[in-house]
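In this section we turn from sequence analysis to structure. A common task in structural bioinformatics is to predict how a protein folds when a small molecule is present, because the ligand can shape the pocket around it. The inputs are simple: the amino acid sequence and a SMILES string for the ligand, here zinc ion. Study the lines below before reading on.
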Amino acid sequence: MIPFELSVKVELSSDLHISGVGRTAVLIDRCIERDAQGRPYIPSTSFKGRVRAHYERLLSALGYDLGDCKPPAPGGMCNDVNNLCPACALFGSPVQQSRVEFTALTPDATAEPTTRIGVGVNRKLNTVEQGRLFFYEAAPQTRVNTFTGTVRGWATETEIAQLIAAIKLITHFGGQKARGLGRVQAEVAHAWLKAGEEWNSRDPKELLRLLQEVRP
Ligand SMILES: [Zn+2]
């Protein structure tokens, strides 16, 4: 098992309109929450759930046996610690602790409104009015379309590669898929794997190549 950390970038391809704090906003759906500052984010549970769903699909496609495991209902998942499917072994089940941890996906800092300093201008005279320095709220970004988050844990190199692939397969967040909302493109921007005491940066694409060689 290798300690690892993946930094994930999620870009919305359908709109998430934010018209400023306190005003109406068209959100993807309930999977988008707002933090105390009113900024939208995708909760860690939604992030993890979506990655797990694609991880399971990927493993089935690769020929792994997932048995009768039917998440997310705890009763439908692997309940024998000595006989876990590969998804429960990594993501956890009622009898097995998860080896992966997900942060929330939060908007890039650049998408936030900023307060700027302005100088008062008398438009008629086209001169700067003395002492008229003021602050104003810069036009808030009307769209937030990049979210970032982190996945970390312990896994084999193959499992890490499968995680990277599963993240790449995410096409939407939330339950409004039919209305075309919440479409996303997701990818692992950076990967770090620990070897001994050192954290080494690894190319996610190079890790993905492992999947072409490894078969169950
Ligand atoms: Zn299972």
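Residues 2-109+142-213 form one domain. As an exercise, try to locate the residues that line the zinc ion site and compare them with your own expectations.
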